[in-house]
């Protein structure tokens, strides 16, 4: 099929490249000339495992990037809107880019004689496609959705770092469409996938995406709640959750307790769902608590640290791990951010190390000391806190010998607690 992808951020680049790899002709549209040039040269504008190889294979062949909407819409049968949907300070979703993309596509549909389907892939709150995208497309094109053109919603469930793998090996595909023809076109695009393909209307598809993320976030906050209780009872919560997760109805995934969840999706999407519920006059107390538990976990880590170092003023505290999870340089909503904030507020001198994310954290905390390896960050420290589940932290050993006082507060259960000479505390186990 001939596909246009609007927006070459994380979702757009992965989606476009993977669709090209599946044999489609793909045109990516962006306003940023830098991104366009990179894609046309086969250089991904973002890092994602396996993406560069695929982009190199398809750029200049069945994948190209342009700023020209006319060209992209004329030469495609289906357009995916993959623009960002940030949240404002109150947690409400900002649909500015969705509106702009819808208007730009709609204006080009005016003169298009063949049937075209517009699909929202960005994460948007329920009813956005139906009540925002479709009316803008109709107004800008002067045509009728469901008759002259189709509209759909096809959420992505990609994990950062594993997005290419997830695109090629999904657990399920959700096709949202408010008219049968649009649904059929989108389903055809996924012909050949062996996973279940669920068809629904657009607002149900939008809700599935939010609820998936909210449920996974709930599993984590639930595990943190259990972990906090287990800690006080002297019970190993990882053993507990291993036993719990063996129940097929529960599954063993997303039951790791620790500092909580971060990233560009879970906190934002749970907040947006809470906001949407409030709009329709419902107070989602469970979802609000999921967020509260998540906010509290760094505080629990701090309390535990203060059990060993009661007065942090002037004390050197090493924070190992700044990214929101391992294998990424992304610090969005990283639990290390509130943790470092609290340490600084207590007067601690913070040293930090992360294998990939230090440069980004320098924008948030320019005045703490960053090191290029864990040993140097630990040198002379009064205690250390592990904030990210990087595999290499599991191999640390002799490095702890460089600390003034070998107190290790592990927020991710990665350090070996049996290392000789260290005082080890897991935050909720
Ligand atoms: C997530 C979803 O997994 C993905 O389907 C969706 O499309 C986007 O959001 P991502 O943000 O890349 O993906 O990260 P993920 O691997 O899910 O981890 C999110 C956060 O949860 C991380 O901060 C991680 O440390 C934390 N986490 C994860 C836990 O604290 N415990 C767990 O058991 C699992």
From TrEMBL:
Query: This protein's superkingdom?
Result: Archaea
Annotated InterPro entries: 6-PGluconate_DH-like_C_sf (IPR008927), NAD(P)-bd_dom_sf (IPR036291), UDP-Glc/GDP-Man (IPR017476), UDP-Glc/GDP-Man_DH_C (IPR014027), UDP-Glc/GDP-Man_DH_C_sf (IPR036220), UDP-Glc/GDP-Man_DH_dimer (IPR014026), UDP-Glc/GDP-Man_DH_N (IPR001732), UDPglc_DH_bac (IPR028357)
Binding, NAD(+): 30, 35, 85, 123, 160, 268, 332
Checking Pfam families in the record gives: UDPG_MGDP_dh, UDPG_MGDP_dh_C, UDPG_MGDP_dh_N
Catalytic activity line of the entry: UDP-alpha-D-glucose + 2 NAD(+) + H2O = UDP-alpha-D-glucuronate + 2 NADH + 3 H(+)
EC id: 1.1.1.22
**Keywords, in A-Z order:** NAD, Oxidoreductase
Q: Where is the active site?
A: 265
Q: Name the Gene Ontology molecular function terms of this record.
A: NAD binding; UDP-glucose 6-dehydrogenase activity
Q: Mind listing the GO biological process terms from this record?
A: polysaccharide biosynthetic process; UDP-glucuronate biosynthetic process
Associated pathway: Nucleotide-sugar biosynthesis; UDP-alpha-D-glucuronate biosynthesis; UDP-alpha-D-glucuronate from UDP-alpha-D-glucose: step 1/1
Q: Where does substrate bind?
A: 157-160, 209, 254-258, 262, 325
Chain ranges of the UDP-glucose/GDP-mannose dehydrogenase C-terminal domain: 318-417
Say which enzyme class the record assigns.
oxidoreductase
Q: Which family does it belong to?
A: Belongs to the UDP-glucose/GDP-mannose dehydrogenase family.
Task: Tell me the protein's name.
Answer: UDP-glucose 6-dehydrogenase
């Amino acid at each position: 099929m001939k596909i246009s992808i609007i927006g070459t951020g994380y979702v757009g680049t992965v989606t476009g490249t993977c669709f090209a790899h599946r044999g489609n002709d793909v045109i990516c549209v962006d306003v940023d000339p830098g991104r366009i040039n990179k894609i046309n040269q086969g250089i991904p504008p973002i890092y994602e495992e396996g993406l560069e190889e695929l982009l190199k294979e398809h750029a200049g062949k069945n994948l190209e990037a342009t700023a020209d909407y006319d060209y992209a819409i004329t030469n495609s049968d289906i357009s995916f809107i993959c623009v960002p949907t940030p949240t404002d300070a109150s947690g409400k979703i900002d649909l500015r880019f969705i509106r702009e993309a819808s208007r730009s596509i709609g204006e080009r549909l005016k003169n298009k004689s063949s049937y075209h389907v517009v699909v929202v892939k960005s994460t948007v709150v329920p009813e956005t496609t139906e009540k925002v995208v479709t009316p803008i497309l109709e107004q800008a094109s002067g045509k009728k959705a469901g008759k002259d053109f189709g509209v759909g919603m096809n959420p992505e469930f990609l994990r950062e770092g594993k997005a290419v793998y997830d695109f090629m090996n999904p657990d399920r595909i959700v096709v949202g469409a408010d008219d049968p023809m649009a649904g059929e076109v989108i389903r055809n695009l996924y012909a050949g996938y062996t996973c279940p393909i669920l068809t629904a209307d657009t607002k149900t598809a939008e809700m599935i995406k939010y609820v998936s993320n909210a449920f996974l976030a709930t599993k984590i906050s639930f595990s943190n709640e259990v972990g906090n209780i287990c800690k006080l009872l002297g019970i190993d919560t990882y053993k507990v959750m291993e036993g719990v997760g063996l129940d097929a109805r529960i599954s063993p995934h997303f039951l790791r307790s620790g500092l909580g969840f971060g990233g560009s999706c879970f906190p934002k999407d749970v907040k947006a769902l809470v906001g949407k519920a409030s709009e329709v006059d419902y107070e989602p107390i469970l979802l609000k608590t999921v967020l509260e538990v998540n906010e509290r976990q760094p505080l629990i880590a701090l309390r535990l640290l203060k059990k060993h170092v009661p007065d942090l003023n002037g004390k050197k505290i090493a924070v190992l791990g700044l990214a929101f999870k391992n294998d990424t340089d992304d610090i969005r909503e990283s639990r290390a951010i509130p943790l470092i904030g609290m340490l600084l507020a207590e007067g601690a001198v913070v040293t930090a190390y992360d294998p990939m994310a230090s440069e980004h954290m320098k924008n948030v905390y320019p005045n703490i000391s960053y090191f290029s390896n864990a040993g140097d960050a630990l040198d002379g420290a009064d205690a250390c806190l592990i904030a990210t589940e990087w595999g290499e932290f599991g191999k640390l050993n002799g490095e702890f010998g460089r600390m003034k006082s070998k107190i290790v507060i592990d927020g991710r259960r990665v350090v070996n607690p049996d290392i000789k000479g260290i005082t080890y505390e897991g935050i909720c186990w």
